[in-house]
Design goal:
Strand content: under 5%
Largest sheet: none
Order of helices and strands: HH
Structural class: mainly alpha
Oligomer: single chain
């Protein structure tokens, strides 16, 4: 996995965590769920990159 892809995934995960916390703090379930979805998407991208790396080696 390239360092750029890894950094993008970490940023997306951090943004998702922030959205989730903001939604929880403000009582906005949509924002909270959006944050969780962003984190899940980031984790799936990270897993996909790891699979690609496994086949490259």
């Amino acid at each position: 996995m390239s360092a750029i892809d890894k950094a993008k995934n970490k940023l997306e995960d951090a943004a998702g965590q922030a959205k989730e916390k903001l939604g929880a703090a403000t009582g906005d379930p949509d924002k909270k769920n959006e944050g969780k979805a962003d984190q899940t998407k980031s984790n799936l991208k990270d897993a996909g990159e790891k699979v690609k790396d496994a086949f490259d080696h």
